[in-house]
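dumping these here so i dont lose them again. two proteins, back to back, each one seq then structure tokens. dont judge the mess
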Amino acid sequence: MFGKQTYIARRNELRRRMPKGGIVVLIGNGEAPRNYFDNAYGFRQDSTFLYYFGLQNANLVGVIDLDNERDILFGDDYTVDDIIWMGPQPSVKELAESVGVGESAPFVAARDCVQAAMRGGRKVHYLVPYRGEGVLLMSKLTGIKTSEHYNHYSTDLAINVAAMREVKSAEEIEEMERAFEIGYAMHTTAMRLTKPGVGERMIAGAMEGVTHQLGDGVSFHSIVSQHGETLHNHSHDGVCESGRLLLVDAGGETVNNYCSDHTRTFPVSGKFSPLQRDIYNVVLHAHDEVLRIAKPGMYTDLHNASYKALAEGLIGLGLMRGNAEEAVAAGAVRLFMPHGLGHGLGMDVHDCEAMGERGMADYGAMLARADEIDTCIIRERWRLRPGTVLTDEPGIYFIPAYIEQWKAEKRCEEFINYSKLESLYNFGGIRIEDDLLITESGNTMLGGDKHIPVTVEEIEAFMAEN
């Protein structure tokens, strides 16, 4: 947790940005049972609640009055029965004071507060809940049917929260540098362990252990697979085989829940084959091209620049043909990289996407205001700002079913050399990912001069030495 002045300043800044005549209601997360109530998954606080109220405790609701400098924390004090199992716990009043909130009340009073605002004709601003329990709680607070929540969520709140959370302060950047250190330890651990005969599960488990030693666990379920052509391959059932590539996409969270997200692809044997080296270097060139040009105001241009670099490399290898720019314009590169270049990163591994294009809400109201939305919640309108952190993660994947579909449909035949792709159906995929901080004049990679081995030479040397 940061100092209380950080949270006071954030709430006041949100108050300044939001239209008057209402309140903001932010619900914290509750415990999520694994198989019965007292056996819960590791607790993870809602990121937006954490951003404005800073508290890692379950079952809290925060209210920010937009017309007065008044913030209220709702929750229930622990009973003696709880303390027997948990030890002494701070009261809700003490929790509120620790983050500069002047008022506190029992959890049940949150409904009265929200209902009173609604009766007075005040707007109740809330974000779309992403957990079932949150949907039910928001329905109880507002009286709005669960099926109607998406028609009443606050576009103003979503936009302003995303705009604030995306631009990182100096203390947040320090936290994300700590997250980089966790990511560095995770990925170098994976490289040390990888060799023929080692199970993917052993590598994934060792990496997760690192995150608990240095922080608060993984920032998402780790991808550790020799089938890198499956973009989100969460199976760890394989056994490393000589001649294969292992794709590791993984990150960790600090104790304050700031995330890292890196991908490395490296040879199980410790040595790239000539073909693996050639394709890897095409991806690395696309990755480095983004590093070279990224600056404020960009995103779509970065995505297209990575596509062009991939097209040029694939043409050079004979897997594509024609003009690179024309191939990008025709959409031909999507066969090899069917995803965007990157995403926002911060307290969520896909920062703020719970309230935007990746959320459950109909975001038509956001699209109607697209010209004023420059945050990561709508990527086609994203305009990077100094303080933004984003991932740079181009890739090349040989997905047999996808290639066969395109081939049958005769898509982009003038650009794709289908006759050479069938021999690559067992190749897998390559992705390279690092986390960039946008600065006033350009960008810098988190970690500074320290980086996870990334060139062919660095990876081979590291695996040989370790």
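---- next one ----
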Amino acid sequence: MLATLGIGAFALLFLGVPIWIIFLLMATVAVYLSGVSMEVVVQGLTGTINKLVLLAIPGFIFAGGVMGRGGMAKRLINWLSALLGRVPGGLPLTTIGGAEVFGAISGSSAATVAGLGRILYPALRNNRYSERFSLGLITSCGAIAMILPPSITMILFAVMTNASVGRLFIAGIIPGLVIGVCVAIYCIVHSHRHGITSGRTWSLREILRTTREVSWTLGAPALIFIGIYGGYMTPTEAAMAVSVYAVFVSIYVYGDLNWRDIWDITRETSMLSAKIFVIIAAAGVYSWLLAAEGVPGKIGGLIDAWNLSPIEVLLIINLLLLIIGMFMDPNSAILLFTPLLWPMAEQAGVDLIHFGIIFTVNLAVGMFTPPFGLNIFVACSIFNVSSTRITRGIIPFFLCYLLGLMLITYIPALSLTLPRLLWD
């Protein structure tokens, strides 16, 4: 029965049926055919979203929206440009640094592309970087936001596996920096190869001025990290606190937004959060179905029968997730495939937190991988170019991310050192 439902689910997926309808339909049919009370479906829908940590999702989405629409992102770019713009490849490095910091505030890949792209793309083009390079850099760098805390993808992974959100957040810091370094090395080499220099001189006055202007913006990630890892706040409380902070700074300190803007951002956050919660609720019923059919145990048995090494298991998982990321958004993918792939990794002795980071990095790559990478569509809309032109520029950055993924996969210390220092 489960195989039949699975084939039907993939058929509906390729027909364009929303993923939450597929989840719910598959589970409802299975419950009906099994003769189990339909109350199970209702309990699965309500039980999955009855978790306090999920309130962090609309909080971080809202905070990212406020900072992206206001002038906080622009001040961040001006500061990084003052620090890095003079070195070879300084403007691409500013783009990477902006993605790292903005991602540490919003946790949203698409929001990072939208927030930074409008500012940095014209600057890159004016500094003699090609259209292909500029589009590829901005579209791919937005994916860093998914790896660094606070990551919405990590929150969903924690819900599906009961992993610690705090451990996942802190575990993503070094992998996020590793990805940034891999991309930065390529950007420096590219700049040298094409003889592109910044043509600027250092200015202590500009550095001090931009540092003073950005100080309120940098207070947002500081609030998140000190609040969570200082033991003062849970991730949910930190999300609410940074939302209030962002509104205060944008309206009363910088004066970039008014209350009408905040209301528009609130409506957008509500719509996006509702879509995510509907998928989570339907995925809860789907997870119950897999557990009732004993799928995790069967997958573990297959790993034993095939006698695969941990290296081989992780290689298979990476290949599967890279392919999945090409066709599905990260939220749906993590809810659909975590119950299937985690038993494989667990049987191979992979640490849960390490696996969560591997899962997240793979889906981050999927954000800018054709044919359905969300960042590609965001970039198409912002820059008014075809997806084909963006795809050509993505290739070298995809290889950089792939190198980073291999390092993160096969050097567990990159993901586990910080959590062990803080909690073990």
